[in-house]
Amino acid sequence: MDLKWEFTSLMHHEMTHVFQWNGEVKTPAPLVEGIADYTVLKANYFPLGFTKPGSWDRWDEGYVHTALFLQYCDELVLDFVAKLNKMMRKTYDVSFFQNLTGKPVEELWKDYKAKYVNKAFEGIQG
Hints:
Layout: H1 3-19, H2 29-42, H3 63-76, H4 80-87, H5 95-101, H6 105-125
Helix pairs in contact: 1-2, 2-3, 4-5
C-alpha cells in the first residue's frame, strides 16, 4: 500500500466537499459523494480495477458508481460536472441532468448501461 498515494486520493475527495455546492442540503448524499469521487477519478488518484463501469443497478448509488456515470455525462457535455455543481448552489432537482444534456437522467442511465454492455460483448467477440 502506498500511503502517500492513498492520502492524496482521500484529500482530493474531501477537499471537493469544501468547494462543492449541495443545494443547501437538498442534493442527495450519493450524488454529493459521487461528485467528490469524480474529482479523484479526474485527478488520476482512483484505484484501477476497483469497479467496472456500468456494473451496478442505479446511477445514484454514490461514490465510484456515481463518479463513473458522471464521467460519462462529462463526455456528452463539456464540463458537465462543473455546470451541475453550479446549478446546485441553492437547490437541487434531478431535472438538472435534462437541462444540461437534453435527456432525463433515466435515459442517460440506460444509454450509459448500454455502452458498457456493448463493450463487454465486444470483448467476448474480439
